[in-house]
Amino acid sequence: MKLSRAIDALNEWVAGKVIWLVLVVTLISAGNAIVRKLFNISSNGWLEIQWYLFSAIFLLCAGYALLRNAHVRIDIVVGRFGPRVAAWIDILGTLLFLFPATALVIYLSWDVFLEAWRSGERSANQGGLIFWPARLLVPLGFSLLWLQGVSELIKRLGFLSGHYVPQEVHDGPRDEEALAEDIRRARGLQGDAQ
Hints:
Elements (H helix, E strand, L loop, with lengths): L1 H17 L1 H20 L4 H17 L1 H6 L7 H4 L4 H37 L12 H30 L13 H19 L1
């Protein structure tokens, strides 16, 4: 469980730092748009840094999203079973899908990053940026996701063996349950009006 807590802390820390990129990319986007409209000046470098930063946000926070259970899931299926079956589904999904997919992306993207770094690959656009920092984001982000998969696997196995109690406490219905209730209410209201 110590390893799991350390991985969770790492992804929490990374997300805490990366969240500031949302403000940075917003300011760059707004500043670039204002300068372009007012002075008819633009730069490919400023446009490219925006997608670099968006990439950093999404890739480096993928592990954090898994930690917070914010990834797309099959809750409609898992929700029909108890917590032990849900834990087994998570374990199998992690072992059969998450680990192989992330390992493959890490393996394939590492050589792409190294080649971009060695060659000094640049954007073909005038004033464009070098590519290796953006290429590095892919193996780095997927490594964080893979590590979080290790943490989640440890937690599920700990739960099944009685060594871990999930701290996920819901004060109210989950988002999916609340949406389903809203739909039921809306259909009930429509039925009454007809």
